[in-house]
Fold this protein.
Amino acid sequence: MAPPLSHDRLMTILRNEGVKLAEYPGWRDRERDDETGKPFGPVHLVLNHHTVARDSLRIVAETGYAGLPGPLAHIHLAKSGLATMCSGGRANHAGLMAVNAYVSFRDEQSTHPAPSKASGTVDGNDCSYGIEAENLGDGVDVWPRAQYDALVRINAAICREYKWKGDSCAGHKETSIEGKVDPRGPVEGYGSRGRFDFTLGQFREDVDERLAHAASWSPGAVTPPKPPTVEERLAALEKRVTALETAG
Ligand SMILES: [Zn+2]
C-alpha cells in the first residue's frame, strides 16, 4: 500500500531533491475528495502532463476549465523550473486510464503497452500524482533545461520516497484512452546532453539515473580539479629551479 503523502512530507521530499518550491494560496484545502466522495490513494504512479495553456498556474491550481473543476494537478511546473504546490488530495488530471497501461506502471514493468480501452479502465485520479508542466504541447514550444531538470527531480523525489523506479513514471499519452499527446516537444538540454525531443523512455532513464545518486545530486555536474597540495607545489617549484640551474 502506498498512502498519499502528507502536505508537509510532500514538500520536504521535493526540497530534498533540489526542487524550487512555491505554495499556491489555499492549496492545502483544495482537492476533489469531498466533492466526489472518492478519497485519493493508494498511489501507484506519477503522471506527467503539459498544460497547453500559458499563464496556467491559476487554472491548474484553482479554477480548472468548464466541466473540469480544479485543482488539475498536485504540482504546477513553470518554465523557469519553479514548482508550485496545488493540491495534496484528489486532483482532476488523469481521467480514465487503460488497465493494461495502468498495470504496467503499477507493477513497474520494463515495457509499457499502448493504452487499450478494451483492457478496461480505472480512474487515474484515484492512484496517481499529477504534474502539470507549462508547455504549449505544439511540438515546437521548448522545454527549458531548468524545467526538464525540475520535472526529473519531482518524479525522482516521489519514487525515492516510495522506493519506486523510473518505471512508475508515466506520460498522460501512455495511459489515456482519449488520445492525449502529452508530454512532448523539444527539450533544451539536460546535464551534459544537448537538445533532444521529450520521450518518456529517456525521461524514465533520467529518473533512474537520479535515483542511483543522492537526492542532492545534479546531472552533468563537473567535479572541479582539486587544488595542488603544498607538497605538490613545492615539487613543482623545485623542478623549475632545477630547470633554471641547468639552463644557466
Ligand atoms: Zn494531460
